[in-house]
Write a structure and sequence with these properties.
Length: 381
């Protein structure tokens, strides 16, 4: 769900003699900076996330369930797990960087956009606190949003940054991290409940960390297997499509029964669903549909960071324009606007040259060592 780090000069890579993870050649073909199916998969995930929040927002506003609801629920077991798995897919390559380059690409990069878009969203949606409770209360509220209770879906960038830091700590023992991540997932509710008296409202972040880590580490350690799976799907399209149909039927049945809410089945559906997304993305990558998803994947960070703003505004307008309208149709309109507006924003910024800090990291927010050999701004993807 998010995008991979910017490309760094070759000099910033650490010697491959240092043990950490599989060689980069095992996860990224020589000479390739991006993988089409990986961008398609990220694009599909961001589309599903935007559709989820568009649909739920309209349903909550109208106190009803729309015809989009079953599809949104169908994607629940694999939607976020796949996002984290994809984020871990290129970790072997990223960990070959020296510490400074790695932290710049995988921590500072995401912290910049997290803080920026958190402040923008709080400023546009929650400034009433300033008028009712005063400046001190508003400052405390902003700090709470930044460190304890992220606004909207910004928790994803928060947790992803925490995963990148954890990966650096365990870079020479990734298998141990995988072993630890499984009980964290299986007992996430119990862990949060036990620590609740001490962590309070930060329990949501802890739950996400415990619940999602296993998918991130699986992407890291299983990268070669997922690349082979994508290659197999390309060469065995008919078999791959048949398996996707079988998977969809099983996933849908278990979701309908509510079995996906149990930890073991939820873990299995998340992993198998992520593999299904890899297969699907590999199959559709050469198509026009794949091209559109790839565009979303390559801009996933700016879409993910800002779509909540457009969802709220569009939902308000459409509900006023079409009172009593069909909830599913209105949700589709909200979804289209929320997904397309970040692209329009990016186009306007590129066209005018104004506001580039919204989509690209400024020079001052980057590692000094790399400033002289790279552009003044680094893109969000």
């Amino acid at each position: 769900m998010p995008p991979h780090s910017p490309h760094l000069p070759q000099a910033s890579l650490r010697s491959t003699k240092e043990p950490c993870s599989p060689p980069t050649s095992a996860v990224l073909p020589p000479g390739r900076e991006r993988i089409d199916w990986a961008d398609v998969a990220k694009g599909l995930c961001i589309v599903l996330v935007v559709l989820l929040h568009s649909t739920h927002g309209v349903e909550n506003a109208l106190n009803t369930v729309s015809w989009l609801h079953p599809f949104v629920e169908f994607a629940r077991p694999f939607r976020m797990p796949d996002f984290f798995l994809l984020s871990g897919l290129f970790m072997a390559r990223a960990l070959l960087r020296d510490r400074g380059a790695y932290l710049d690409a995988k921590v500072t990069h995401f912290v910049y956009f997290y803080v920026l878009w958190t402040l923008i969203q709080v400023g546009l949606k929650e400034t009433s606190i300033l008028a009712t409770d005063g400046a001190n209360a508003f400052v405390l509220h902003v700090l709470n949003r930044l460190f304890v209770a992220p606004i909207g879906v910004m928790w994803f960038l928060y947790i992803l940054t925490a995963f990148f830091l954890t990966a650096w700590v365990f870079r020479r023992r990734p298998a141990l991290l995988l072993v630890l991540s499984i009980p964290l997932h299986l007992f996430d509710d119990e862990i949060v409940a036990t620590l609740d008296p001490w962590i309070g409202s930060a329990g949501g972040l802890l739950w996400e960390y415990c619940s999602r880590m296993v998918f991130f580490v699986t992407g890291w350690l299983g990268a070669s297997a997922f690349f082979r799976l994508a290659a197999w799907a390309n060469g065995s399209a008919k078999t791959a499509v048949a398996l996707l149909v079988i998977w969809a039927a099983i996933n849908g049945a278990l979701v309908w029964q509510g079995s996906h809410l149990t930890n073991w089945i939820g873990l299995s559906l998340g992993l198998v669903g992520a593999a299904a997304v890899v297969v699907f993305s590999s199959l559709v990558a050469p198509t026009f549909f794949g091209t559109m998803l790839r565009a979303a994947g390559r801009r996933s960070l700016i879409v993910f960071s800002s779509f909540f703003l457009w969802i709220a505004a569009t939902r308000t307008v459409l509900l006023k324009l079409f009172p009593g309208g069909d909830a599913g149709t209105i949700a589709l309109g909200v979804f289209a606007a929320a997904l397309l507006t970040p692209f329009v924003l990016s186009w306007l910024i590129e066209r005018t040259g104004q506001g580039r800090f919204l989509i690209e990291r400024p020079r001052w927010a980057r590692r000094r060592k790399d400033v002289s050999s790279s552009p003044a701004l680094q893109p969000a993807v």
